[in-house]
Amino acid sequence: MSKKLYSKFIFFLGRYCMSAGPAWMVFRQFLSFGIVGLTGVVVGLGTLNICMLIWHNFPLANVAAFLVAVTWNFFLNRRFTFTPTDKVVFRQWLEFITACLGGTLLNWIVSLTLYYSLVFFHYHYNFAAIIGIAVAALSNFTCSRLYVFKNKREKTFSDDEQLETNFITKQNVLSLEN
After folding, report:
1. Cβ contacts of residue 170 below 8 Å, gap of 6+?
2. Residues 22 and 30 sit within 8 Å (Cβ to Cβ)
């Protein structure tokens, strides 16, 4: 990664962290999001097993389990993790499913890339799966927080006001490039 690209990444990361709200709130939301996700795993596995008993068709049962688990997670996250928004529930649910599909795809890409590119992960595939799950969880949380459950009523800052409140300014980034 070039020094210029790295400094832009640090600048973006600093802006994101400062605009995301107090760190404790983000941490609390991430923890709540993770707990809801764990309950979703239980619901999804239960749905998968019930559907397999009924249909004896793994791909169909897996899709049903995904939809039930994501719907479960959506309503719990809407109730307990994020503040209420002005969005229509059905539209927000579709956005959440889209974000989760993106996370699922990312999980698949990361875990398969690790599995097929590094011998260690070929023999210890659970580690590749765990890394993929962690990347997907961060992706799902970020998309949920910044896109799906973004509250339009929250105060937003202009770019100049935001730069004044950030600890990373353009001058600090430019000094990193030198």
Report:
1. 11, 163
2. no
What the block records as the tokens of 117 is 């590119």
Q: Is 113 exposed, middle or buried (0-12, 13-18, 19+ CB in 10 A)?
A: middle
How many residues belong to the chain? 178
pTM for this predicted structure: 0.71
Cα–Cα distances in angstroms (integers) from residue 96 to residues 31, 71, 72, in the given order:
18, 9, 11
Number of H-type helices and E-type strands within the chain = 8, 0
pLDDT of res. 12:
60
Question: Helices 23-55 and 125-143: crossing angle, nearest 10°?
Answer: 120
CB atoms under 10 Å from CB of 103, counted, come to 22
Q: Looking at residue 118, what DSSP letter applies?
A: -
The two three-digit tokens of residue 104, written as one number? 């699922």
- Which burial class, exposed, middle or buried, applies to 100 when counting CB atoms under 10 A from its CB (0-12, 13-18, 19+)? buried
pLDDT under 70: residue ranges of the chain:
1-3, 5-21, 152-178
Among candidate residues 70, 149, 131, the one with its CA nearest the CA of residue 102? 70
Closest CA to 137 of 21, 90, 129: 129
* Residues 67, 128, 49: CA angle, nearest 5 degrees: 35
**Domains of the chain by residue range:** 7-169
